């Protein structure tokens, strides 16, 4: 009788280990990103990535106070920072709120409370990644329907904030005009310290990035090309990127 009990315990033990192994193995097969961090665009005030992942308690407070619905939480297939906040600038960039409410809401220090105003934000740096598709450089007017993406996003959110409505009203005014969206929609108090349209040798204008750029991703969001011509390099400084280009 004792032998039967022992065999049963051994069966349960190894069966459990086998099931656990299959679960873990399945996770590795179906979600390979769970084992590595991604270079995501983090909310304003985010400390360096390793500290951020250690400090963030995944409470979602930053998401809840963002009036532009810019912040998302990483899901299971988005790296090992599951539940941590990030911004997808293809959908909605950060619009640099004057009081930086997401930072104020963070209880853990993952978002540094020394970030008190838009000029303190250092999320990354804007880069004209695809100059060949830039409408300003090719003197192509902003096409009809360019604003469908922003309308779709804004209309999809629950409890739209009046700031989102104001943003949409401003954005809707550019159809048929020469494209200056990335420069005109820059949300920081002194946008000319971050980006400006300058004459290009090809006869058009091109966005030029300066060291005042905070990497908020607003320019990437509003770029009217199918794949944004201008993008944000997360956690990269102006000096790090543009020093190598001079």
TrEMBL record:
Residues 43-76, 83-116, 205-233 form the 4Fe-4S ferredoxin-type domain. The chain crosses the membrane at residues 12-33. Keywords: Iron, Iron-sulfur, Membrane, Metal-binding, Transmembrane, Transmembrane helix. PROSITE patterns: 4FE4S_FER_1, 4FE4S_FER_2, TAT. Signal peptide: none annotated. It comes from the Bacteria. InterPro entries: 4Fe4S_Fe-S-bd, 4Fe4S_Fe_S_CS, Polyferredoxin-like_ET, TAT_signal. One of its GO terms (molecular function) is iron-sulfur cluster binding. Pfam families: Fer4 (PF00037), Fer4_7 (PF12838). The keyword Iron applies. The keyword Iron applies. PANTHER family: POLYFERREDOXIN PROTEIN FWDF, PTHR43193. This is 4Fe-4S dicluster domain-containing protein.
């Amino acid at each position: 009788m004792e032998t039967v009990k022992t065999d049963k315990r051994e069966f349960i033990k190894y069966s459990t280990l086998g099931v656990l192994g299959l679960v873990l193995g399945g996770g590795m097969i179906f979600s390979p990103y769970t084992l590595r961090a991604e270079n995501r665009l983090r909310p304003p005030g985010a400390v360096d990535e390793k500290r951020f992942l250690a400090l963030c308690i995944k409470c979602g407070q930053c998401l809840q106070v963002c009036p532009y619905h810019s912040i998302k939480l990483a899901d299971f297939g988005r790296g090992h920072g599951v539940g941590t906040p990030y911004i997808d600038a293809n959908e909605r960039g950060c619009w640099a709120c004057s009081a930086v409410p997401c930072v104020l809401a963070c209880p853990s220090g993952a978002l540094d409370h020394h970030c008190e105003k838009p000029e303190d934000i250092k999320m990354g740096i804007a880069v004209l990644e695809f100059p060949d598709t830039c409408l300003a450089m090719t003197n192509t007017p902003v096409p009809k329907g360019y604003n469908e993406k922003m309308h779709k996003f804004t209309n999809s959110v629950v409890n739209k904030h009046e700031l989102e409505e104001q943003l949409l009203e401003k954005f809707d005014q550019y159809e048929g005009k020469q494209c200056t969206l990335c420069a005109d929609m820059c949300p920081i108090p002194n946008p000319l310290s971050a980006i400006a349209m300058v004459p290009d040798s090809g006869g058009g204008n091109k966005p030029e990035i300066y060291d005042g750029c905070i990497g908020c991703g607003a320019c990437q969001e509003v770029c009217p090309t199918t794949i944004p011509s201008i993008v944000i390099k997360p956690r990269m400084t102006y000096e790090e990127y543009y020093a190598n280009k001079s």
